[in-house]
Please model this.
Amino acid sequence: MSQKISIRAWFLGSRLDIRELDRARLLAHSPVTLKTGPDEWVVAFRFGVVVLFGHKIRQEEQMLKTLEGYVSGAFSHPESEEAELLIDADLKDTVNHEGHIVVIDKSPERLQIIAQILAKSVVLAHYEKAVATTFERFENLVEQLRDGLSPGKGRAVIHEVGNALAILTRTVAQEVTLATREHRCEIVNHSETLLSFQIEREKCVKGINSAIEPRSIDS
Model:
């Protein structure tokens, strides 16, 4: 008999203090995985992401409220990403035509793989938006430079350039950090189909890579 479980990943802030989470409900390490109900799990990452499995809206609100005290550099509008998990022992690990993630069981290893994919995706989505906003600011700066600067505008333009470069630096650094953590993570016996799903998710990385390529002023 199949079972559907909702998943939502939240990028809450720059850091999540996972050491202070409820260890009594600890199910697995690396990443920290908590079992919070009969069919509810929480997977938490130090870089500020929490992935909630099987939480209804009110449960999710309560969990996010609980986690507020553990988040450093909290975002005022956290990025989130949703997915649907279908558990069916008679099927194979895959992503079906409806976009549901299909797994044969709800083992901690499979939940952790899925959580890692969604965590990386939601972080990159956050920074992708930041990069898009940054380039809009750069385009405005280019126009100002073309038109010439009044004496009072010079300092403001330098400030904007510094802010824009800082965002781009954080974006690239975050991408490298996530990739490094992913290579260090040791998860055994995962299926080729789950890896294929991960490859699909990582297409968003290419979007960021193309976005941060230098643009000529005349383009």
Summary: The chain has five helices and eight strands. Confidence is low (pLDDT under 50) at residues 179-213, 215-219. The longest helix spans residues 108-147.
